[in-house]
Amino acid sequence: MATPKEHIDEIRRTKFSIGGEVNPLMEDLHQAVKNLSAELYAKDVHFLMELIQNAEDNEYPEGVNPSLELIITSEDITGTGAPTTLLIFNNEKGFSSKNIESICSVGRSTKKGNRKRGYIGEKGIGFKSVFLITAQPYIFSNGYQIQFNEEPCPHTNLGYIIPEWVEENPTLADIKRIYGSHAALPTTTIILPLKPDKIKAVKQQLSSIQPEVLLFLSKIEQFSVKEVNEDPSLNTVNAISISSEINFVTRKNIDADSYTLHLSTDEASDVTEKECGYYMWRQKFPVRQENQVERRLEVEEWVITLAFPLGQRLNRGMSSPGVYAFLPTEMVTNFPFIIQADFVLASSRETILLDNKWNQGILDCVPSAFVNAFNSLITTSEDVPVSTLIPMFRFLPVCSSSYPKLNAVRESIKEKLRRENIIPCQSYSDQKIFRKHCEVGRLTPSFWDILKKGRKQGVSFHSLSSHGKYILNSSFDTEEYDDVLNFLGVEPVNSEWYAKLGGFQVFYAEEEIWWAKKQN
Length: 520
What we know:
Layout: H1 4-15, H2 26-42, H3 47-57, E1 67-73, E2 85-90, H4 97-103, E3 138-141, E4 144-147, E5 164-165, H5 172-179, E6 188-193, H6 199-207, E7 222-228, E8 240-251, E9 256-266, E10 275-286, E11 301-309, E12 323-325, E13 327-328, E14 338-340, H7 357-378, H8 386-389, H9 404-417, E15 423-424, E16 434-435, E17 440-442, H10 445-456, E18 470-471, H11 482-488, E19 491-492, H12 495-499, H13 509-519
Parallel strand pairs: 1-7, 12-14, 17-18, 17-19
Antiparallel strand pairs: 1-2, 2-6, 3-4, 3-6, 4-5, 7-8, 8-9, 9-10, 10-11, 11-14, 12-13, 15-16
């Protein structure tokens, strides 16, 4: 078997005719590289999302906690004169010979046609997106130590895809020193001496990474960003370390499952929230024929995941995205939950294509997924007091969105919820009672006071809900939840309901005064 260096020499000789016979396909390669260059710089690619996406698509050894570590430094370990260098460390299995051959090609990704296996990349640019921020990327992996160059190679007049063996800078000792001596080097290291005009933008992206970036990744469990300089006072990037952990999984009987995911962050800056749990609901829906698109022909089902934050969202003081396509978009939905699915994205990754029929099919399924998730949160918690369930109603999309298509989702959720037995009713027994919105009524605060005083006097209210309406649970019937109850369509009981209570025992003088006011 050829050594990594021998493999690179063979690629240069047979594919690119460097020191060998002329490859008859060289002219096609020239055109392909020209097309790549035009595509690369025409798209506003978010390089950091591309890096995370590539790491998520990698394969990992058993027993390893998949991690992605980014270190930025002012030390010029490549000898290219770059004022700032970004190093990416990933403990994946490492580059195989096929991966190397793919990266030395255009449009020959080893991940093509594997969307059903969980690959999330799709734009066809992949690793080559690094050329947006560097002119000379380096790869050290499984014995390979190679670099590529944006500038055309003098032997072939081709850029981007000609591998060159790294003889001197950087050395493994240089890389190890930057990484730190606390652990062995991960299998793969990518080194990007940054273009001077990209340094500010790269640092900005690194400083603004959302802790929730790991929410919907099935492999990456740890992600970190830090800056390493001889003089720490030169550091300008906000360091952060993010980790995720799934606490438990519960199988459901409707082709869905739920689990709790815990995110925690460790960063030097003074942030108020450093951890948050998320209730995750994942449900599958068959792809309808009328929603099929060419880019997803091999996909037969949509997998929609909804995330419900069980505390303050981890957002580092920034606006929180509400729509994910495995990684966050920049869409702020104004909803108190997060929608994740295999959406077709705009080229910039900033938004999903709202007019795309594939995406519309997904959005049409979101209300059903939400109602199933909400039902599982509210009505299946047998041993939990009703009062502890009430805050879950804060997950309802009470506020409208700035996106009309998402407002349609909101209206559909409202319509479906109003058909469900989810409203907790007052019960003076151990039994929990949930009814539809139209079967439940609210009481005035003054009448709740009367009921409380009556309870203290031993008055029985077991038949309180036998007068044409179930009574809303007292923990829910407060001004704090007016917006939620209006969204659900729960209205106050009318005067006729109060009139039917004439048979109740009179237990306080002020009650008689209240009745007089109510009847007049």
